[in-house]
Amino acid sequence: MSHNHSLIRYISKQSKRMMTMTKYEVAIVGGGIAGLTAAIYAAKAGKRTIVLEQQKQLGGRAITNKKQGVYFNLGGHALYKGEAHETFRELGLRIEGSTPSVDAYGMWKNQLLTLPMNVSSFIQTPTLSRGGKLEFAKWFIKFGKMDTSIWNQISIRDWIESQLHDPMLRNVFYALLRTSTYVLAPELHVAGPALKQLQRSLKGVLYLDKGWGTLVEELHELAVQQGVELVTGCKVVAVEHQDQKVHSIICADGTKIEASNVILTTPPSISYKLVPHADQTALDTWKKQAIAVTIACLDVGLRRLPKPKHQFIYGLDQPILFTNQSRDGKPRAAILSDDGTQVISLFKYQGPQTDAEQDEEQLEQVLDVVQPGWRNELVTRQYLPKMTVVHDFPHIKRIEDPGPAIPEIEGLYVAGDWVSYGELLVDASVASAKRAVSHLLNSREDIKL
Ligand SMILES: Cc1cc2nc3c(=O)[nH]c(=O)nc-3n(C[C@H](O)[C@H](O)[C@H](O)COP(=O)(O)OP(=O)(O)OC[C@H]3O[C@@H](n4cnc5c(N)ncnc54)[C@H](O)[C@@H]3O)c2cc1C
């Protein structure tokens, strides 16, 4: 990290001097995964590109903080084998980590029950009745190859209630879908993308060694290699346009940066604020239709697990998740500490009403059940009461899919996890970043540059 930080500081000083004089072909607001991905593809296409990030470090919500030898993401993160993974491979990123076993328990009335995740647990599980098991087996066989797009017009609640009959099986599906999408609004969530994400999660996810900060570092290095200018500590306050054409960016310190194309990777509400007269653009609709997904995250580093078998727990009657993301004796997952400390992530999936203290208490109670005596093993902890996982998701109240271009202003684009065409989470950030760049490169006006 330290090498990259000093590199950014150096680039920041250089860039602040240069950027007032240079006209950029592509300026990107926000240096998270979407911003870095967009920058790399724009620069690879030969465009003079700059990234402006308000924080002192790049990475946005994908940063990793090191605390007492433990690598904490901003809440547990898993990389699905979707658009982001594919793109990172295409870019040559190393992506070191491991796929944890799918073995899991369900938590029901504060009891842990094995879930039917393989043949032996299928036979032994007390979670499902005989009828429930038969129904599960029927779905399991056809699920992997199912064309999920046929369910794009209904909510995941309607899908579950119409397709599954056993009440406990429904609870299991709600828990599986919530875990792979983070969404606690089954009545709003479009079934097709949610089921596709579940298909992906059943193929196995990756927990990354030393956290998602490694992805950020690698994207950063690649961006530098491609000649992207990266400026941190630069808060953008306006994106100016005239005659329906974008022309410059204004930073909080008064710096003006001229740019013929701008990609906003900021949340929908901030993107709206940055653009004068946004009420007369599609940004207005996209801001109004957005529904953010938030969770409370408790991460703990434990010297050892009091109950080593309890590695992954789905809440069946409460919206919680417990996962050991780190490597134990047998390699379960990623290297997340320097000394073998086990790193556990717990989530409370949130609806519109949240209570920071109550959520923390609930997550600690889950730990008491799953890892009794955990307080005696505690090395370090991190509690984040309300993290925005995504700023919007494919829901049935959506009027239109956002982006990539803002049609009323030439040269202005959006990307980020809310700019989804059905992709979820970081897959939406990466896919939308690529869509914005490819749209920009193919637009006739851009060819005149
Ligand atoms: C707890 C948690 C768990 C998650 N788990 C997963 C998971 O398991 N799998 C998965 O795929 N995804 C997961 N995600 C989602 C994933 O982290 C995000 O989708 C992704 O990191 C978002 O990247 P982004 O670039 O779209 O947005 P961000 O990371 O938010 O980047 C936007 C950047 O813009 C900057 N910015 C904002 N305003 C300005 C301004 N005015 N001027 C300059 N810069 C500005 C911000 O500082 C930020 O750096 C999780 C997220 C959270 C919070």
CATH superfamily of the largest domain: FAD/NAD(P)-binding domain
Indicate the low-confidence ranges by residue numbers.
Answer: 1-11, 444-449
Largest sheet: 7 strands, mixed
Helix content: 25-40%
> How much is the average pLDDT?
92
Q: Tell me which ligands are bound.
A: flavin-adenine dinucleotide
**What is the strand tally?**
20
Q: What is the C-level CATH assignment of the largest domain?
A: Alpha Beta
Q: What is the straight-line distance between the termini? A: 36 Å
Q: Please work out how many helical segments DSSP would assign.
A: 14
**What overall form do the CA principal axes indicate?**
globular
Radius of gyration: 23 Å
Overall description:
The structure is a single chain. The chain is α/β, with parallel strands linked by helices and 449 residues long. It folds into three domains: 2-61 and 213-289 and 399-447, FAD/NAD(P)-binding domain (3-Layer(bba) Sandwich); 64-100 and 206-211 and 293-390, Alpha-Beta Complex (Polyamine Oxidase, Chain A, domain 2), CATH 3.90.660; 105-202, Orthogonal Bundle (Guanine Nucleotide Dissociation Inhibitor, domain 1). The protein is built from 14 helices and 20 strands. It has helices at residues 2-19, 33-44, 83-90, 119-124, 130-143, 156-163, 167-181, 191-202, 213-225, 268-274, 282-289, 356-370, 426-442, 444-447, and strands at residues 23-24, 26-29, 49-52, 64-67, 70-73, 97-98, 105-108, 111-114, 207-208, 229-231, 236-242, 245-251, 256-259, 262-264, 293-302, 312-315, 320-324, 342-349, 378-390, 412-414. A seven-stranded mixed beta sheet has the order 8-7-16-17-18-15-19, with helices on both faces. A five-stranded parallel beta sheet has the order 10-3-2-14-20. Strands 1-13-12-11 form a four-stranded mixed beta sheet, with no helix packed on it. Strand 16 and strand 17 form a beta hairpin. The longest helix has 18 residues, at 2-19. The structure holds flavin-adenine dinucleotide. Flavin-adenine dinucleotide (FAD) binds next to helix 2, strand 15, strand 19 and helix 13. Flavin-adenine dinucleotide binds at residues 29-35, 52-55, 60-62, 74-75, 77-78, 80, 235-236, 265-266, 270, 295, 297, 387, 389-390, 416-417, 425-426, 429.
